[in-house]
Amino acid sequence: MNNKLETFKKKLIYRASYRGTKEMDMLLSKFVHKYIDIWNETYLNELEEFLNYEDEVILNYYRDNIKRNGIEKNKISEIFKNFKI
């Protein structure tokens, strides 16, 4: 695997693991670690966009399926919605 892609993956892992709240750190880091090595670059780019949302928006989407906060429906958001720790 190329060095640029590995660096990108490490960046995504870091962003998922250090969100600001322990609950989101755990949820997103487990989600990312589960899939990061099997996703292609397109999925990883969608993941990067997903990680740009605020913790509250992501958590509301995960818990209550609240979509009005602007989370785009794509493969990453669907996989995340169905993800169980």
Describe what you observe in this structure.
- With 85 residues, the chain is an all-alpha fold.
- Helices cover 67% and strands 0% of the residues.
- Helix 1 runs antiparallel to helix 2 and helix 1 packs parallel to helix 3.
- The chain has a single domain, classed as DNA polymerase, domain 1 (Orthogonal Bundle).
- It is globular and about 40 Å long.
- It is built from five helices and no strands.
What is the strand and helix layout of this fold?
Blueprint: H1 3-17, H2 22-35, H3 41-51, H4 55-64, H5 75-81
Identify the notable features of this structure and list them briefly.
5 helices; globular; single chain; mainly alpha; DNA polymerase, domain 1; 85 residues
Termini gap: 28 Å
Strand portion: under 5%
The topology string of helices and strands comes to: HHHHH
| Biggest sheet details | none
So what's the CATH class?
A: Mainly Alpha
Fourth-level CATH superfamily: Flavinator of succinate dehydrogenase
**CATH architecture annotation:** Orthogonal Bundle
Could you say which overall geometry the principal axes of the C-alpha atoms support? globular
Helix content: 55-70%
Rounded mean pLDDT is 91
Number of helices: 5
CATH domain topology: DNA polymerase, domain 1
Radius of gyration: 12 Å
Query: How many E strands?
Result: 0
User: Segments where pLDDT lies below 50 for 5+ residues?
Assistant: none
**Number of domain units:** 1
Structural class: mainly alpha
Provide a concise account of the structure shown:
The protein has 85 residues and is mainly α. The chain has helices at 3-17, 22-35, 41-51, 55-64, 75-81.
